[in-house]
Design goal:
The structure is a homodimer of 615-residue chains. The first copy, chain A, has 615 residues and is of the alpha+beta class. The first copy, chain A, folds into three domains: 197 residues, Butyryl-CoA Dehydrogenase, subunit A, domain 2, CATH 2.40.110.10; 349 residues, Butyryl-CoA Dehydrogenase, subunit A, domain 3; 29 residues, no CATH class. At the A-B interface, helix 1, strand 7, strand 12, helix 6 and helix 8 of A face helix 1, strand 7, strand 12, helix 6 and helix 8 of B.
Chain lengths: 615, 615
């Protein structure tokens, strides 16, 4: 607890600079004020509301958070229990938490910091529910910082990581707020007629989440890169065992990174850092383009309430394609990064478990990314739904309008001929094999759902595979296209391009090999091709990339103080630093304990008391 | 730090009872004194040494630890740098750490607690090295508990978990110890002649590690079962979303455990808890039998120094088979348990990340098991070495002497006919398919190494796969045999046996499906069989096991206070407990902070000060 309060304090000192926040790499109490709270006020508030709330928030006169998740409700936003009942008499909304499970939960910055919240609550007018909407609610006194009357608010307690963030809970007992506190840019209640005013287009509302997910994809590359940097540097320094085949004359131990069993764990992750980075960049570009298009015809589309854009515009709208891609890629990219960090930690052997490795806390802080902004498993359903819709469109003979319908159409066209991809010889064929597998799994899902009428629930596992397959295709395609693009080829010298190309092949072939059974089944490859990819090509690529490995992680350019890792030091002084931290910086070593179980005394001597009293 | 000191103190109170220690499920400072220190003194000491050290240790007059790992040397015991130089003049050994990397590191209980250590050091006589041997060395004063002269000892600092254990470092500057401090049951230095006395049999020395690894296998089942219990109970309570296919009349949300995507993650792990438990039991039985046999002919075998028993007795010795099995299974079982716990945590959704889930800290404390007692990747080489040796013996036409050589012989005998296993229809065939895959991969490895003379390093990835395949075969076989054995069939009623049989099939078919590409390649199954196993059989088994899931985890019988989890409560009062812990037990909620960044004050009010001053 003490440590946490210190960090909270530390966060405040850095407050003025967002960049500094990014660099200290720890979630601070103002993170959500600056992101979700300000953005929601800005995007969903009217000019009047901007004046009333946004201005103050920007000046830190009010500190806010975004309260959506409830104790009993995570991904299912429509199931939220908190209510906002319109009271026509005094033109107010009554915010109320009918059950314990309606308690807002996990709300970042709410635990100790925020005095305002954007609360997502079910709008009820005249006894009729109109779904969740955002309301601005004050929760603590601006002077005393005590909770307001009928507001029960507090911190939810320790977590596996992320303990520098004060996640909170929040319950309301019939709290009244004025009409103006419902954020009314998209939908509102007319106080004169007591009628609900519908939003113009659902697409605009969904846009923000698509952006957030695309950003997670972009980040996942550099998140993983930290772990890969530490593990690669350490494994290049650390020596263990002699090579069994080495001649007696070479008595030294071998650098761990020279072992193929270490290479096969780390180097594909090194390739993945670049693959994810290029994919994230591609997504952000794609997003910017879509936004332009949408704003051209926002008023034309009359969105069907209750369905996401993947239902309403499939096959004809680039936003739907982007939305599905952002769901699938967020899921895949954050899984690769989280699991990859743990692989990096273990590749550091015993010392990976020490806090001085710098990987453990980083991993623990990153883990919730696999659950928030859409649970990675839940999101796969959105991708499957979009692909099913696209398959229906293609089956009906509609013309392809984007890449997804394009690859489905091509697959159908070759259904009487089968595929023949030269996955090891030609890069285009390697990408095409991934597309083929996606298309095969899409039409399998189509068959099960639309023709055999299987239950949705019985297909969830297939949908998850489908989403993963599609997302892997997108990563491989994005990586490939980034290498072809003139901006890449112009910026890099010949040798760098060659190494990057090897990383591309390693990433693609290693992924293909891991998912080989789907590639066989779809007929995209032969069994022989996979065996060759595994035993020859991948092993050869590892050997070729090995000499460049340290230079490649250095290109991510993390400064030592940011990595905060004995093992990942740029100068390789691993053991000196580990020893320094353990022996000299470790406050425990100024304490002498009494070791005998009969003794009732805990300490013989405790020189750290001076240190503690300073806290 | 404060928390840790409390726990250390807490550990002492519980000291008198090992069972209590097991129940609190946290590593305490005496854990290694009681296990590694006492066992090493007992097994490797002479009667004279027992009187001198063991007696005192048993009475806690001296507190010890086992100091093997060094800063620069983990798995490679032969590479240890600490030296013990025989000094004939005064009949002493001089213990010395020549470099920083020679510092003992990670030594449990050494950080603050121990005053004695068994130190593994390179024995040097007359300038000649004789490999690592165990020496008893006092490191701290028995009264003041201060480090002795020329001993630099301390705690290595915080870790990812396991912070209730005081892992330490230890350096020696030419410390003299008497001749009697070299543990001399197996090997010794004759003080009269200054000659080294060799051990009788290497097998005896290796026995302890085999036992330790078998015990890890047995434990892994119950370690995983804790996570599976919490996740299964919570997912049976938690409701999210409506089933897409449900009729409008059924408005309630569906229990998360009814979703196939959740079942496919949790139920195979539930099956794994039983599979690992039965396998561990089988290993312990097998170990007891081998020990009997060995003690019959310990003097007959003259072990070749420098090689493990897997080299010297392959094919003819049950200990070699057991040693290889213990290496492979330790690696597989601890990986399944560690990764399974993380799957359980994520299956709990957002709340899995809360400390109140009870899974996070348990997972973090378990993680080092994948590295210690042999890194999981390193161990696979031992298995491969043993299987290669067995393959050579079979190729030479030698008669099979154990199960391993038996399955290799059967594979060769059918090499002109191929296999035809009815994996879905017959359980024996399912087990046989796993054996076939092991044999196929063994002879592939034999071909690469012995015929094509490939470099050992280039085959490490293949060896890892081989070890995994062999270990999975052993788990499937042990599970199958446990279900057939009369002790199981007599103890359980018909219905329980039926459910356990379904768990066996789920575990085996799910594993087979995940490793499907090796099953295709070996010709053990057809592609069609795997598709059927996945889309029909496994999905059907999930549905059949679902109604028994909660009863099955209840059979592990963890009391609530041991699970220490809001989510895994037996009575299902998940949300009440989460709320109680966050709102009432959370000391942070008695603190009121000052939220504004300009303010230099951190707290408005802090009622927790009373609480803190008590510590």
């Amino acid at each position: 607890k003490r440590l946490r309060q210190l960090k909270v304090q530390h966060g405040w000192d850095q407050e003025d600079s967002i960049v500094a926040n990014d660099l200290i790499s720890e979630p601070g109490p103002y993170g959500l004020h600056e992101s979700m709270f300000l953005i929601t006020l800005r995007d969903q508030g009217t000019p009047e509301q901007h004046k009333l709330f946004l201005k103050k928030a920007e000046n830190y006169q009010i500190i806010g958070c975004y309260a959506q998740t409830e104790l009993g409700h995570g991904s299912n936003v429509r199931g939220l229990e908190t209510t906002a009942t319109w009271s026509p008499e005094d033109r107010t909304f009554i915010i109320h938490s009918p059950h314990l499970t309606a308690s807002k939960w996990w709300i970042g910055s709410l635990g100790r910091t925020a005095n305002y919240a954007v609360v997502m609550a079910q709008l009820i007018i005249g006894g009729k529910p109109f779904g969740p909407h955002p309301f601005v609610v004050q929760v603590r006194d601006l002077k005393t910082h005590e909770p307001l009357e009928n507001v029960h608010v507090g911190d939810i307690g320790p977590k596996f990581g992320y303990n520098t963030m004060d996640n909170g809970f929040l319950l309301f007992n019939h709290v009244k707020i004025p009409h103006v506190n419902m954020l009314a840019r998209f939908s509102s209640v007319d106080p004169a007629t007591n009628k609900y005013v519908r939003p113009m287009s659902a697409s605009l509302v969904y846009g923000t989440l698509t952006w957030v997910r695309s950003h997670i994809v972009l980040q996942s590359g550099s998140v993983l890169a930290r772990g890969v940097t530490i593990a690669t540097r350490y494994c290049a320094i650390r020596r263990q065992f002699q090579d069994r085949d080495a001649p007696q004359s070479e008595k030294g131990e071998t650098a761990v990174l020279n072992y193929t069993m270490v290479q096969v764990r780390l180097l594909p992750l090194l390739a993945a850092t670049f693959a994810l980075h290029f994919t994230g960049q591609g997504m952000m570009r794609f997003y910017a383009e879509s936004q332009k298009k949408i704003h051209g015809n926002a008023n034309a589309a009359s969105a069907d309430r209750g369905a996401g854009p993947e239902e309403t515009h499939a096959g004809s709208d680039s936003l739907a394609d982007l939305h599905a891609a952002s769901c699938g890629l967020k899921s895949l990219a954050s899984s690769i990064a989280a699991e990859g960090l743990e692989v990096c930690r273990r590749a550091c052997g015993g010392h990976g478990y020490s806090s001085f490795s710098g990987i453990g806390p980083w991993y623990a802080d990153y883990l919730p990314t696999t659950t928030w902004e859409g649970d990675n498993y839940m999101l796969s359903q959105q991708v499957a739904r979009y692909l099913l819709k696209s398959a229906r469109s293609v089956k009906k003979g509609e013309k392809p309008t984007n890449d997804t319908t394009q690859i489905l159409t091509e697959f159908l066209a070759r259904s009487d001929m089968g595929a023949a991809f030269d996955i090891i010889g030609k890069d285009e064929d390697l990408v095409a094999a991934f597309a083929w597998r996606t298309a095969y799994l899409t039409f399998e899902a189509y068959k099960h759902r639309d023709e055999e009428k299987k239950a949705w629930n019985d297909l969830l596992v297939d949908f998850y595979r489908l989403s993963k397959a599609h997302s892997q295709y997108l990563v491989v395609k994005n990586f490939y296209e980034a290498l072809q693009s003139s901006s890449t080829t112009d910026a890099l010298d010949e040798e760098t391009r060659t190494v990057l190309h090897k990383l591309f092949r390693l990433f693609a072939l290693n992924t293909l090999e891991q998912e080989s059974s789907e590639f066989y089944q779809s007929g995209a490859t032969t069994v022989r091709q996979i065996i060759l990819a595994r035993t020859n090509t991948v092993m050869k690529l590892l050997k070729e990339i090995r000499p460049h490995a340290v230079r490649l992680v250095d290109s991510w350019d993390f400064p030592d103080w940011q990595l905060d890792s004995s093992l990942g030091r740029y100068d390789g002084k691993v053991y000196e630093d580990l020893f320094h931290r353990a022996s000299e910086l470790n406050p425990l070593n100024s304490i002498t304990v009494d070791p005998y179980p009969e003794s009732s005394v805990l300490f013989k001597k405790d020189e750290s008391r001076d240190f503690k009293s300073k806290l």
